[in-house]
């Protein structure tokens, strides 16, 4: 049983990657039926939100219904705050009756504590989401996180609401972590901080270099010592006349003669 589940999950994932715009893929090998499954997304009847009140209550999941979720071209699950993101919801109907997809909704929570709700994302309602028995279908879901989100990891909980024979059901197609990043604008808080820090470091380095250059130049300007004849001030000679220093100087001069 486990091996069969792995086989259908692999097949469904391949279908989602190969035909993200397909509504219903019937489990037949006929080429005409396969060509009819590549319908435009508009044929799904996406009518936005607040069109049908399916309630905020919790419905049970129907037996024989399996779901899968993929982030197209975004395997690392990076979501930019304030920008539109897309995911694909695959649903497989192994029941005996046809089901009708009503809406897809999602919410963002604090990691490891889903009681702390951060944002309820816009619900996407469908009016042409029929999935016959023994069939599978893919539904796109577009959502936008608030610009106030700080970068980091958050938990995304996605639910698909459907009805079978007028009875409402729901299945959770994703309950995991997403990484929220800032918009790739030119100026962000982090970029401004880094630029300011860089300018301050450059200014400090310039002041340090200027101080070093000044200290080296002062050392090079030290007065040179003159070697040779020395002139003596006459007033100094008169002040030293009669002292031992004057007598020694006169004796030295007599010896040189």
From TrEMBL:
Keywords: Calcium, Endoplasmic reticulum, Membrane, Signal, Transmembrane, Transmembrane helix. Its main location: endoplasmic reticulum. The chain crosses the membrane at residues 192-211. Residues 1-27 form the signal peptide. It is a single-pass type I membrane protein. It is found in: Endoplasmic reticulum membrane. GO terms for cellular component: endoplasmic reticulum membrane. Pfam families: TRAP_alpha. The keyword Hydrolase does not apply. The keyword Secreted does not apply. InterPro entries: TRAP_alpha. Shows a remarkable charge distribution with the N-terminus being highly negatively charged, and the cytoplasmic C-terminus positively charged. Heterotetramer of TRAP-alpha, TRAP-beta, TRAP-delta and TRAP-gamma. PANTHER family: TRANSLOCON-ASSOCIATED PROTEIN SUBUNIT ALPHA, TRANSLOCON-ASSOCIATED PROTEIN, ALPHA SUBUNIT. TRAP proteins are part of a complex whose function is to bind calcium to the ER membrane and thereby regulate the retention of ER resident proteins. May be involved in the recycling of the translocation apparatus after completion of the translocation process or may function as a membrane-bound chaperone facilitating folding of translocated proteins. Belongs to the TRAP-alpha family. This is Translocon-associated protein subunit alpha. The lineage of its organism: Eukaryota, Viridiplantae, Streptophyta, Embryophyta, Tracheophyta.
């Amino acid at each position: 049983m486990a091996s069969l589940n792995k086989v259908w999950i692999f097949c469904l994932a391949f279908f989602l990657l190969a035909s993200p715009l397909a509504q219903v893929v019937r489990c037949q090998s006929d080429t005409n039926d396969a060509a009819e499954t590549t319908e435009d997304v508009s044929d799904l009847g996406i009518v936005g939100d607040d069109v049908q009140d399916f309630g905020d209550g919790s419905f049970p999941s129907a037996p024989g219904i399996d779901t899968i979720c993929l982030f197209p071209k975004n395997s690392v699950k990076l979501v930019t705050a304030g920008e539109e993101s897309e995911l694909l919801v695959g649903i497989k109907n192994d029941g005996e009756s046809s089901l009708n997809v009503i809406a897809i909704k999602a919410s963002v929570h604090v990691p490891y504590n889903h009681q702390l709700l951060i944002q309820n994302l816009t619900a996407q309602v469908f009016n042409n989401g029929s999935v016959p028995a023994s069939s599978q279908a893919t539904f796109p879901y577009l959502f936008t996180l608030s610009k106030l989100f700080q970068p980091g990891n958050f938990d995304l909980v996605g639910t698909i609401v459907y009805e079978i024979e007028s009875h409402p059901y729901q299945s959770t197609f994703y309950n995991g972590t997403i990484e929220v990043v800032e918009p790739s604008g030119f100026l962000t808080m982090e970029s401004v901080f880094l630029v300011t820090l860089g300018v301050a470091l450059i200014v400090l380095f310039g002041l340090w270099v200027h101080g070093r250059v000044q200290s080296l130049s002062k050392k090079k300007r030290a007065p040179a010592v003159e070697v040779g004849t020395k002139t003596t001030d006459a007033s100094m000679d008169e002040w030293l006349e009669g002292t031992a220093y004057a007598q020694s100087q006169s004796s030295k001069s007599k010896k040189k003669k």
